[in-house]
Amino acid sequence: MTARLPTAERMTGEGTVLDWAAVRDGLTQAKSFWLATVRPDGLPHLRPLLCAWLDDALHVCSNPSARKAKNVDGGSAAAIGTSCPRFDVVVEGPAERVTDVAALRRIADAFRDKYGWPVVERDGALDAEYAAPTAGAPPFAAYTVTPVTAFVFPTTEGPAPTRWRFG
């Protein structure tokens, strides 16, 4: 699969615009993520969760009865944030439930490789012998958040605050 390369623009200040590959590597290696969605009443909803970068998108999972899953299933867009060694990243985009068995297996493999969490595809969802602290009890609905816009905010000198737009 060919990587989707976004267009970068410096938002403010001085400094170099990071190469997208460095941001992608940061998303791949980061362990702690936060998912922001919007509740039906319009209030924000923010929760920590496990996340894997795979096939140029972020992948998360949740018990389908959890508020974050209900928000996404109800049409809420998503923003996912994380901290990397030199910068913080926020990725915004639509979140869609994954039902394709092959895709679910790849997502399960990514969670297992990254977190050591023994999750598997079963009956069109993800399943594990035990719950993840941020996903609730199994089975888990899997979601793909496809980047539309990404932001990097430097935490060290050098990189410039940058916005990436995906076409």
UniProtKB/TrEMBL annotation:
Pfam families: PNPOx_N. One of its GO terms (molecular function) is oxidoreductase activity, acting on the CH-CH group of donors. Residues 21-127 form the Pyridoxamine 5'-phosphate oxidase N-terminal domain. This is Pyridoxamine 5'-phosphate oxidase. Keywords: Oxidoreductase. One of its GO terms (cellular component) is cytosol. The keyword Oxidoreductase applies. PANTHER family: HEME OXYGENASE HI_0854-RELATED, PYRIDOXAMINE 5'-PHOSPHATE OXIDASE-RELATED FMN-BINDING. It comes from Amycolatopsis mediterranei (strain S699) (Nocardia mediterranei).
